[in-house]
Amino acid sequence: MSKFSRIIWSLAILLIVSTTIVFSFGVLIVGAVTLSLYGLYRHYFPKKKLKHSTRSQMYTFGEVIDIRSEEVHETINLKKIPK
Questions:
Q1: Which domain holds residue 61?
Q2: How many domains does the chain have?
Q3: Full-prediction pTM beyond 0.85?
């Protein structure tokens, strides 16, 4: 009976360990599928931009100068040296 009991306990422990491993991989696979589906959802259905917002894009680096195009052309024409 001792040998039979040892085999039963070994099988029970093996079953518990294998179930834990399969469950862990299942959770990882479900998480990966969920994240990829969420990424596809955000790719094909992006947030719609609000039309009432007229603020320009925020720049985190560099210098941004907002000049009308007419002023730029006038400045270029003034700087040209006549030949």
A1: 2-47+56-79
A2: 1
A3: no
Nearest-5° angle of CA 15, CA 17, CA 22? 90
56 Cβ neighbours under 8 A, 6+ residues apart: 66
Residue 23 has a pLDDT of 97
What does each C-alpha distance from 77 to 50, 67, 68, 69, 83 come to in angstroms?
A: 39, 16, 15, 12, 13
Instruction: Give the DSSP per-residue string, the chain.
Output: -HHHHHHHHHHHHHHHHHHHHHHHHHHHHHHHHHHHHHHHHHHHSPPPPPSS--PPPP-SSS------HHHHHHHHHHHPPP-
